[in-house]
Amino acid sequence: MFPMFAPPPSPSYNTVPVHRPPSFYQADSVPPPLAAVPVQAVWAWNFDQESSILRSFAMGARYVAVAVHYPGIVHHPGKDHNALTTEQRYALVKRNVDALKPLQVGIAVCDSQGRIQAWEFNLCNFRRLSDAHDESSLAYLAGRGLDVDTLAKHGVDARRLGAMLLSYSGLIGPRRGLSWITYAGAYHVAYLLKIVTGGGPLPPDVAGFLGDVRRFLGDQVYDVARMAAEFPALPVGLERIAAHLGFHPPCGSSRLAAAAGVRALQVFRRLEQGEFGGDVGRYRGVLKGLQC
Questions:
Q1: DSSP code at position 281
Q2: To 10 degrees, what angle do helices 47-58 and 158-167 make?
Q3: Which strands form 39-42's sheet, in the order they lie side by side?
Q4: CA-CA distance, 258 to 279, in Å (whole number)?
Q5: What is the pLDDT of residues 144-172, one digit of tens each?
Q6: 35 and 11 in contact (C-beta within 8 Å)?
Q7: Which label site among 42, 62, 182, 288 has the fewest CB atoms less than 10 Å from its CB?
Q8: Residue 280 in contact with residue 267, Cβ under 8 Å?
Q9: What are phi and psi of 4, to 5 degrees?
Q10: Helices 186-196/158-167 angle, 10° precision
């Protein structure tokens, strides 16, 4: 086995304290969970086994969240990002995603009974000495526990992950009743599409990109950052929002890609079932960093 860090102690489900819901809560029907969601690290050595487990659990999937860690941004806008058009924002996303290699993909799946499982796929394709990256972004990720040299030695080829997701997982492709969740998701969704299409360039314009989003993920794609912006009482940042709402950090990898996927999924369900009362249609397909 090649763990990036020591495994956490097994959670004690009988000793986890029950937290009083924050004042933000308005829906008693969706109380905060009492236990942290475990994250399974996936490397080359256990990829087949974990892919099989994912496929089995995904048969009952209702929600899927994705978060991708990547080596920063190397192409920047010539003016304030808020002043860019949607087409200009997409051109910037495309230029960066086409030029860079993803490092880690976190996928969290929630079934119709509210059970959540999460996987963190560590990718082997990036090489610090030869591949484009932003050094400060790598330093930030290293501080959160991501070791790119360990990924290069023991990770999964991104093409292998893409083939599994596309043809085996049961998650990719239009599927009735399945919602995809992300946070500040333009880059996360773009990298996911790059992976499932074999690493090729993204479509040339935003219309082609959104067409691919619908083709591979369906028309139920939501960005939690856009939804949370409706509530000034919520803090900024996914980790802060999840903590504010009373969610425990995921165990096993609480600061990397799968943890971000878990938090995005938990926060989405809280907002959807609580504050929005199930009416989230106006946020469908709106990705922060692209349309807003």
A1: G
A2: 30
A3: 39-42, 116-122, 104-111, 61-69, 179-182, 221-223
A4: 27
A5: 999 999 999 999 999 999 999 999 999 99
A6: yes
A7: 62
A8: no
A9: -80, -20
A10: 90
